[in-house]
Backbone:
């Protein structure tokens, strides 16, 4: 159906910014309306790129986790349980909702791996633990970069601002 | 936890349409509590900015024993969906009440109420509004450099007062957990925030778990003094008059622990834009007798990232559950945690 969702979002932002916001005097209402505009900007980015980013993220996780398992297998005794935490990743489904579920399943595996490392670190070779952690942290950095590309319009720090 | 434009009595606008209190009941309640014969609620305005709870400013005038009077009061109440911070309102009130008679300047705590029949909502508490400004904008106006520097110096002195307070004598140890080891100064609080995060059952977030893990594995093994920690130090979180700080606000994240956490909070929120950090540290060390430790400040900088993640990310769960809330919550629930995850990860080298 046309207009495309992105075009409709642009229309909503135009009405909000050109018609509604200039007419709002109440400070709290302006604060809310500005938050609405930022959320609309975020939605524009999500609509445009979320499906591709999810597919890239899931493939990155599957590849990294497979490397971690291989590294664990080569590291000797004590690491056997780690392999069991990581199932076959399979192929990421295309529909967005299913792709999200698949992605979250892989992220849950990563969480399990982080917890496993914390619990077993004292028994393991420190060098190998460090290498596995570094590989996971680099993946986490890439993941966060992918996510923050969508969230940046909403970024909110607490530094000093003119108010 | 407050947004940049924090509690700000001056300049808040009328917002009667948002008023969720029964104003007639509120006026009657305040008349009774203030022992007035006649009382008018002349204005009730909601603060713009602070997000942990709702803050309302009530201005009243009336007569008591035949004499006219006016008063300015602040009401704190949880959002209808609950507080953003995992600290109950009564603890916040008790912190204010414990600090009211001490040398740490805070708004005087007046009454904590649990009966919803009183004003239409409960629990809530009332404190006396401290006249002054919390405006960051005013501090950073061109030409206000001397004011900024004076406030920066006073902030360092106020931190010294908080950190050298005899918290046992003030009664804070009766409702705040007391760390038994240096590590517990961080780990007790970390456990508290982890619990709040997990209770919200968020989507799996490897980055958050990695930051939890780093904080646990790198916990400081020494602390110079177990102090009262203000918990949310920043420009906008104090009231100033002229060039002096007259009240410290935003105590909802206060606890007993390592004073360096407050310096991490202050620097995280750009307090060194008031006065160079080295000058603030020198004033603080002289006033408190405590030494500033940059390594521990860096550790607590990551801690604060995680704390903000744990308080704001769970908000998204409420949206997911099909309970739409104000757009500011969605903005807060995404904008703060992702910013903090990024900042935390960079601080630990990724």
Residues:
């Amino acid at each position: 159906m046309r207009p495309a969702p992105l075009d409709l979002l642009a229309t909503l932002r135009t009405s909000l910014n050109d018609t509604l916001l200039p007419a709002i005097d109440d400070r709290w209402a302006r604060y809310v309306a500005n938050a609405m505009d930022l959320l609309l900007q975020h939605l524009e980015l999500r609509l445009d790129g979320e499906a591709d980013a999810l597919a890239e993220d899931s493939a990155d996780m599957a590849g990294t986790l497979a490397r971690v398992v291989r590294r664990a297998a080569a590291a000797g005794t004590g690491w056997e349980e780690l392999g069991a935490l990581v199932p076959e990743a399979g192929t990421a489904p295309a529909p967005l909702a299913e792709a999200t579920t698949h992605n979250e399943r892989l992220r849950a595996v990563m969480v399990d791996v982080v917890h496993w490392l914390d619990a077993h670190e004292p028994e393991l070779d420190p060098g190998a633990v460090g290498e596995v952690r570094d590989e996971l942290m680099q993946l986490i950095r890439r993941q966060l970069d992918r996510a923050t590309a969508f969230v940046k319009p909403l970024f909110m720090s607490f530094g000093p601002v003119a108010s | 936890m407050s947004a940049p434009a924090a509690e700000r009595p001056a300049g808040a606008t009328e917002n009667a349409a948002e008023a969720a209190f029964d104003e007639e009941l509120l006026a009657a309640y305040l008349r009774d509590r203030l022992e007035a014969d006649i009382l008018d609620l002349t204005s009730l305005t909601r603060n713009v900015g602070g997000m942990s709870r709702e803050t309302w400013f009530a201005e009243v005038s009336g007569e008591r024993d035949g004499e006219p009077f006016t008063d300015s009061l602040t009401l704190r109440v949880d959002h209808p969906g609950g507080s953003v911070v995992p600290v109950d309102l009564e603890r916040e009130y008790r912190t204010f009440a414990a600090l009211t008679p001490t040398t740490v300047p805070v708004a005087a705590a007046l009454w904590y109420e649990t009966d919803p029949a009183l004003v239409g909502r409960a629990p809530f508490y009332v404190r006396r509004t401290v006249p002054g400004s919390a405006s960051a904008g005013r501090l950073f106006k061109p030409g206000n450099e001397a004011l900024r520097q004076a406030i920066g110096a006073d902030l360092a002195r106020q931190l010294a007062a908080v950190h050298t307070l005899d918290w046992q004598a003030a009664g804070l140890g009766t409702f705040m957990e007391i760390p038994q080891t240096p590590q517990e100064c961080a780990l007790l609080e970390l456990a508290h925030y982890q619990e709040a995060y997990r209770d919200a059952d968020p989507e799996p977030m490897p980055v958050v778990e990695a930051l939890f893990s780093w904080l646990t594995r790198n916990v400081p093994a020494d602390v110079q003094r177990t102090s009262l920690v203000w918990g949310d130090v920043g420009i906008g979180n104090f009231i100033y008059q002229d060039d002096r700080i007259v009240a410290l606000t935003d105590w909802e994240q206060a606890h007993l622990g390592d004073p360096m956490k407050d310096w991490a909070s202050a620097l995280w929120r750009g307090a060194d834009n008031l006065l160079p950090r080295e000058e603030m540290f020198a004033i603080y060390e002289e006033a408190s007798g405590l030494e500033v430790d940059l390594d521990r400040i860096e550790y607590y900088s990551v801690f604060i990232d995680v704390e903000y993640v744990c308080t704001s990310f769970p908000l998204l769960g409420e949206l997911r559950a099909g309970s739409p809330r104000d757009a500011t919550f969605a903005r807060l629930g995404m904008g703060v945690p992702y910013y903090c995850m990024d900042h935390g990860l960079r601080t630990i080298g990724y």
Observations:
- The two ends of chain A are 43 Å apart (CA to CA).
- Residues 27-74 of chain A form the longest helix (48 residues).
